[in-house]
Queue: 2 jobs
Job 1
Amino acid sequence: MTTTLHSFDTAIDLANNGIGQYTGQTNPEYANMVGPFGGVTAAAIIRAIERHPDRIGEPVALTVNYLAPVTDGSFDITVRAARTNRTNQHWTAEVAQDHGLTTTATAVFGVRRDAWSDTEVTMPTVPDPESPTHTTLPGPVPWMRNYDMHYVDGAVPTEPAESSSSTTTLWVRQRPARALDFAALSALSDVFYPRVFLRRGRMLPAGTISLTTYFHVDGTELARQGTDYVLASAHAQRFARGYFDQTAQIWGRDATLLATSHQIVYYKD
Amino acid sequence: MTTTLHSFDTAIDLANNGIGQYTGQTNPEYANMVGPFGGVTAAAIIRAIERHPDRIGEPVALTVNYLAPVTDGSFDITVRAARTNRTNQHWTAEVAQDHGLTTTATAVFGVRRDAWSDTEVTMPTVPDPESPTHTTLPGPVPWMRNYDMHYVDGAVPTEPAESSSSTTTLWVRQRPARALDFAALSALSDVFYPRVFLRRGRMLPAGTISLTTYFHVDGTELARQGTDYVLASAHAQRFARGYFDQTAQIWGRDATLLATSHQIVYYKD
């Protein structure tokens, strides 16, 4: 019997070159319009920190800045524990290639404790992912083929019609199915096509500049999601002369708010 | 005639020690429970980047990570242009004191261009800041005295009563009045007391770990706000075993969405 690595695990597979130094290889299956899917770069950074021998706790926050496209081939990730506190740890990370820095990041890892807890926002009411009313559209770029995407609102526009809403809501899981972990959740936080496509009813030049994700569960709670679909919903608040923001929620089917995520996106129109 | 520097400008006043190296002094007027108000540290970082000779454009995004309290006295800010693209520039920043790193940050500066634009979210409908129905409560910590805060919803709890909503909305401006700039707007993005106080109806240990702000205006649009009040509104999405998130909007009185901001906060309950 042979086991084959999931394409996502191949894409974020890292070789150790020293403490906090890792080398990965871009995977063409996760290619975006230019360079790889930003979510897979975020995932590789989380994976690099997870593998650092000094790491304590689990992801609480991640900010990834996309400086330049990662080009096909190998990339180096350097991660550094900037400060270790009693219950949390601050990290900085950089991704570099021969041509220079492509990505900077900061992350907070932490230990969760018993404390009063509450989810204040409510999960959108939508049909379940198995409902035949859903549509799964093939994505326009390679990385999208690694996800089962069942749009319940705001699918990728297929005809030139403007929309007054930038909201997209979809059930999504990795294809083939793979148990949800922090690396996968980090990638899912960037699973939305650019909101400006939806508003304008067409594709145009756009790319994430900075992505921030807050994690609301620990590894045990995350593992409970198994390989099931999660519900991902995103909208923009303002499109302002070349930059728009996006704010997103990722829910488990059991109504657990797994992560909230925000990004600022460059666009040209 | 003598002119006195506004206390905010004193708090973020920086001496140059070399290219990209600055030294500031904490100002007791901006003290928080432990260390200075996080907003003033964010503002000092924006100011440091603004003063760098290589800087192009204006703030688009800022993420500030609070590693450890800044102690009273001098602090060093180091900023570095990690990458300069055609229309944007990526920065990294660190704040250090004798005892080590206190703060890391990343920022994106950019140039805005003519492009299709739209504000999709709507400003909360509230009475104007001059309305006599508003209450201005003295803040429990020194930095709050530097702001006129007129709460229209979710004021600092004065009696032990839990709330089912974490939403706070207030009109706020600097005291004494000072024209709004990016440094001041960066500070305002952290002007909210911890959401968990409102939900629990009491103060408890809490502190911002990481703050991300997206700026939606250029300097000319920002200057139009003058010294007027802005409307700031924030709520939490989830409180999860020691960490909660906060998402916020800052509006000009003329319904311009100036900034959206997000943070993850440690709490103990």
Job 2
Amino acid sequence: MLAIICYALLAGSFDHYGILSQVSIPLALTSFAGTVLSLLLAFRTSQSYERWWEARVVWGAIVNDSRTLVRQVKLFMPQTAEGLAVAKEFARRQGVWCFALGESLRKLDHSDKVTSYFAKSGTDSGNKPNMIINHHSDALAAATEQFKLDPNKQVQIDATLARLCDSMGKCERIKNTVFPRAYSVLIHFLIYVLMTLLPFGLEDQSKLVEISLTIIIPALFIAIEQTAILMQDPFENRPTDTPMTQLAKTIENTLMEIVGEPPVNQIEPPVSYFIM
Amino acid sequence: MLAIICYALLAGSFDHYGILSQVSIPLALTSFAGTVLSLLLAFRTSQSYERWWEARVVWGAIVNDSRTLVRQVKLFMPQTAEGLAVAKEFARRQGVWCFALGESLRKLDHSDKVTSYFAKSGTDSGNKPNMIINHHSDALAAATEQFKLDPNKQVQIDATLARLCDSMGKCERIKNTVFPRAYSVLIHFLIYVLMTLLPFGLEDQSKLVEISLTIIIPALFIAIEQTAILMQDPFENRPTDTPMTQLAKTIENTLMEIVGEPPVNQIEPPVSYFIM
Amino acid sequence: MLAIICYALLAGSFDHYGILSQVSIPLALTSFAGTVLSLLLAFRTSQSYERWWEARVVWGAIVNDSRTLVRQVKLFMPQTAEGLAVAKEFARRQGVWCFALGESLRKLDHSDKVTSYFAKSGTDSGNKPNMIINHHSDALAAATEQFKLDPNKQVQIDATLARLCDSMGKCERIKNTVFPRAYSVLIHFLIYVLMTLLPFGLEDQSKLVEISLTIIIPALFIAIEQTAILMQDPFENRPTDTPMTQLAKTIENTLMEIVGEPPVNQIEPPVSYFIM
Amino acid sequence: MLAIICYALLAGSFDHYGILSQVSIPLALTSFAGTVLSLLLAFRTSQSYERWWEARVVWGAIVNDSRTLVRQVKLFMPQTAEGLAVAKEFARRQGVWCFALGESLRKLDHSDKVTSYFAKSGTDSGNKPNMIINHHSDALAAATEQFKLDPNKQVQIDATLARLCDSMGKCERIKNTVFPRAYSVLIHFLIYVLMTLLPFGLEDQSKLVEISLTIIIPALFIAIEQTAILMQDPFENRPTDTPMTQLAKTIENTLMEIVGEPPVNQIEPPVSYFIM
Amino acid sequence: MLAIICYALLAGSFDHYGILSQVSIPLALTSFAGTVLSLLLAFRTSQSYERWWEARVVWGAIVNDSRTLVRQVKLFMPQTAEGLAVAKEFARRQGVWCFALGESLRKLDHSDKVTSYFAKSGTDSGNKPNMIINHHSDALAAATEQFKLDPNKQVQIDATLARLCDSMGKCERIKNTVFPRAYSVLIHFLIYVLMTLLPFGLEDQSKLVEISLTIIIPALFIAIEQTAILMQDPFENRPTDTPMTQLAKTIENTLMEIVGEPPVNQIEPPVSYFIM
């Protein structure tokens, strides 16, 4: 950002006082370079938004499948106290999964809820959310034996687990796939080209106007690109992030309601985003 | 809106009478800023439309799955009076669900139909539509025990419930996800930049023409952006909304027809949208 | 259309003989307004095409699911004369469904085939295609009892019925969702603005050329928008429609072939569209 | 193409020698008409590419589902010589299906492989690929009775047949849906308008340059549109086609490998496309 | 690239010293040709990115389905040492599959892991990944007989195999489908046209500026197109590739964790891409 302003000032003064002051480049050419840049930025903006939106859609699916998982477990287990106990255990574990996924995507230290869960379970893993799905799977195997569960029902619950596993993998994909750097390089290069051409096209203007314009216009492009950069990585602990902690809290409360337990989290109205 | 007209007048008069009257900025530059703005607006318009259309698609899926749910319950229950009674109960409950979902998305007070349903059922929840799906699930568990339902059939009805739960979650996602404010800010900023540049590019025109143009052109951009804002939040109790009440009424009538009951709602031809 | 030509002539003559004849608006500004309009039209064109194509895709799915339904019924029923009779009945009913859906989407009077089907069945409904799916469902329930059908197979046929129900709901959604009028209004307004600005930018041309241009250019935009309007509602009994009658005939013949019956419709080569 | 060059020459000479030689139309207007045309062409190009790509995706799905079908039949039949014989029969029939589908989409005469299959089976149909799926279905019914196949497995194989039926229907949809002619007409009209306007905007150029430009620029647009036309119909026996014969051969070899038979086709490296 | 610079120099000098030095082509026309080129490049860029992203999505699905496969095998086999042995065998085989797929897509020699697997199994195939899926299928058939597996469970595992088979087919489709060459040809042709027109529009500039511009601007377009070419084929052993080896290693470690084995690969932080 700062580098760009310096460059703009430099280019502008060069144009005036340097040996290049007789040179003038038609504005049509400059505005044509701007059109190319605009189209590249439009592509960039739209792809970044797609990533951000996909992240949100995936977490929407996590909300739905979490509810469905617990509802199915409750529905398919025998309608007894033991069956309900299994459902409650699934609900608690699924709540932990949501927090664990959010935290590992943001590469944060795990919260107390998650670490105490793993301490209790006596297992550990580099990929904690995946380990929790394995625990779900083991618990399902145990419940199948205990209650002689019909295979159809076991398969249906397993299918929901597979969908959760899919959502987890999609988050990892978005997190780990770098947006092709070549496009950033091209866009930056075009902004510099534009900044170099611009002063030569404004020859006949007053110096003040010329300098303001050579600063404002590239700044606009930079702003658009920065916004795209913020949007494209939605799991980086930034205000534009997918609100994973918020969602995890809401999910956990709903899961508790499904199995007839009181809510465990207090939901605050979302504020962070608007501050931006 | 008003602020913008004032700003335009101010910028225009400054240009004429102020110390800046010798300054002129080439129109090519202005129209180039306009191209950037156009591309951003095209992106904005298209994303808002996608949200609006997705909302409509989700409610279309709710129509279909509601019908399918009741049809399946009727088909899979024993073809007796008791089986039909269960199907009728599902149909009624599903009708309430549609209204409850629409009202909670619009953050309206719940209608009599919904409140009386919850009064009768003796339960309550912050997320009423989700609670009704739990009731469906409980009723399915009860019917499975009562009629010794084949697990295959139970699983199939459960899959339809899972799809309804998905649609509900998608509506919540659209409702709760704020469109990235950064883009609105950028667009507003670009409109102001354009308004400031425009008068300097029209120097040699008559004052009247200049002022009209500096008002009309930004007004056009504002109008396009406002339309996008209206479209992007389709559950806000506005004429451009997804017609959820209308759809809920139609769904309820069709459900009643499937279980052989007379229609309960009178459908009026949709008028609201055209008034806009 | 005519209104627009009149307006163009009016605006053109005003420009020449009226008090505004000294006024001239730079062409760059006009062509910039045209860029905004082009982007809006590009959005409009692309969304209308999407609707048209989606309608075609949905009817493609109806073709496939109709075939699959009858094939499944034939496959899952016992391989006896009675089983085949059920499949034939399904084939006939599904044929009627295709015609009923096409006709009710176009809001036409129902054809003899459909009315005689409902006369025979002794039922009636405001939503005839949905009623026929209910009949399918009832026939499936009856066949299940008669042949002690395995629940797995019943569920599979039911899933195909659910897909047909989905396709029906998608057609209804496309039919009943008005394309946001706000965009039409904006586009029309922009065309008028363009027509008003255009003559002032062509000041130095001969009168004849000026008038032809102020007519031809807006006419082009109108033509593009009209095409979009034709495409966006693909069930309106127009030559650009989804060819539903043609498709229904083809479907019915194929269904008859599957159950070993002779074709019932004569397929004519599609001609209507090319006339346009 | 030729007509257009003639028209360009005519328009150009008219401009020079005719009575219109005093008329000059600003180039800004011409280039603005060109922008509209570009956007329409961009839309056209992108939609044609989508159709071409969808055709390729559908054939990709056919590859996958063919493999899956034979693998499933082999897996679900008893692991005996008789079970394997059924799988081999399915593999051979599925190979024929791929060829039959490709040939009927291209409206070619059927190859020996297909005609000899139908001669042997003693059946015939106007829609040969659909008839082969019916044969699959009949063979599945027979095998179910012979081996007392579990309904679950039968249903799973049937689901793969339904997906193949879907892919077939999608190919038919792409084949039979004409791209809306209105857009071609608009594009051609715009090219003519552009060619008429262009010479008047180049008044002050040498005659040679003017004529070359009035030929080259419309020729470019025509070339872009022609490419779109080639892409939009991917089953027309042209070098840009989906390589269906090549794919059918590969599929058949893989199917043979799955059931433990030697390959039946020699695959040549694809060359046709690069010749273009 | 070099050819283009030479051409630019040639065209530039021709313009100055040749007989064409009186000819001048308006810059508006040139920038209009540039607009067409920009739109084609925008289309090209966006389609290439789609292919690259689809490749990444498919490998994301492979990650998920690999985990799901092993988890399901472990869940559905009896919870005994023998059951676990089968799951371990599946985990190992699935690990090999990931490497085999990556290597055959890149047309590399197979690694030791893969060749030793095939040496042990005593089979071979031109399409190694497909052969491994067949081995999965055979092992599933054997386990079904050994443990009297419920058909429901067998079918569910088979469905996961079918999804893996789909992902494999999608990779092959992306690998084998050449991006339509016609568009590359058009884009190159347009770049040459632009380079030829450009010097004639810059007549009144200093020679140095003119030559730099005629080199820089086409170079930009070439750079954008080259980036698109790199992105469109994501399995070519280039730094912009889908990181298949990295992914295969991660998958194998996770699979080992699921069946309770120690990790077999050391994961290095991804570096290659950033070098670009």
